[in-house]
Predict the 3D structure of the following.
Amino acid sequence: MTLNATRVACGTLGTDPCAYRVVAEQLPDVAVFAFDRDLRFELATGAAVRETGWRPEEILGRTVFELVPPDWVERYAAPYRAALAGERQSFEVQGWRVPGKVWAVDVVPIRGANGTITGGMVFGTDVTERRRTERELRERRRQLAEAQRIARVGNWEWDLVSGTGSASAEWFRVVGVRPEDIPSPEAALGFVHPDDRPVVEAAIARAADDGTPFEVEHRTILPDGQVRTVLVRGEGVRDEGGRIVRVIGTDQDVTEARQAEQERQRLLARLYEVLEGQHQRLAVDLHDGHVQSLAAMGLKVDQVRLRLGPQAPAPVRELLDQLRDDLSDEVTALRRTIGALRPLVLDQCGLVTAVHDLAHATRSRAALVDCSVSDRLGGERLDPDVETALFRVAQQALANIEQHAAARHVRIVLERSGSAVALRVHDDGRGFDPAEVEVLAGHQGFGLTSMRERVQALGGQLAIETGRGGTTSIEAWVPTRSGPGSAEPR
């Protein structure tokens, strides 16, 4: 028997307390009390009576005025009197003997056989745990709403069976609309930028079809015309039978983050532009100054040898020979430094030729069995900034191989994929842990961080696959054409 059904039944039981006790015994979680017109208790039963902190014998035969603390008397007496007047009263109250308890109380009139009100009945239900759970739930919802507000993340759900949808308050703030502006899940797609909508629709359709999780970044157009960048993640949810019945997801406003990333890329690009300019000027100064001076000194040494002729003492000739060799070695070292600073072949012949020269030099210095270059660009010249960035990545990768990998075979691939250019460097060395080695010693201090920053400055990405005792693959991906804000699945 339900509590409501019992309350209805109690209205027809008459005035025999035993009859109420029979009903109360069917409700072990409820305390049931009956009182007469003097507000004197005639019945106190139910398993929950002891939860009030009272024993039945302490209650029976006593009035509300005798049991309730003076400050609480009117609060309790008023609904009891209302019941005697034929009204039903409902309220919640905190226990006074057990203050931590919260009771939901219903007071109903009891009518005799002739219809007159002879007293009342009180149903007290312990709702302490329920209210605590409700408070915790409200607090969690508040925390979730606050977290969503701070992170600008809103969640949504699309019920595929009913065709209806729901979303959190923050989702509507992210999209910039009111709930009444979106009568259906399909209508929400109307705020996605037209150029990005096909990608978003395809991702959601696939999740609805087979549950595939997705992550798509797209532009959304607010009602005031403002364009924001939103990162949406979602997936399909199956029922017990394995059928996709819902698609759930989140939308996060990443506009400021993307703007900050674009500004970071701009600053990095400017930084490396200045750095390359300095390297180029230094390379020119070294070539036009020191290299030429050393070459002139070498010529003078040759002239001294000629003037001295065969009659020069052997120690003098040996000293001049050593001086000439030292000058030649110094010129070679300077030219190598100039090549590292800004190789002329990169400017004159392009990326592919420069990487070929770099691979040949590395093979000689590191005594590699093989250092091959696979050119899939077809001799195409790229944007100077792209060529410089990819050359620097290749330069640092080969420097790391030479100094740390103990590799025997190296393979370099240059290829185009759509509107992007990829550089891949693979070696069969001993590998490393990228988490432990963020910056490796190399030419001019270019390490992993610098490699990553160089490609990120051009809107690209750097991926590293390696591990201790294994091979290493480094891939730099750089777009040759940019399309800011376009939707891109991840």
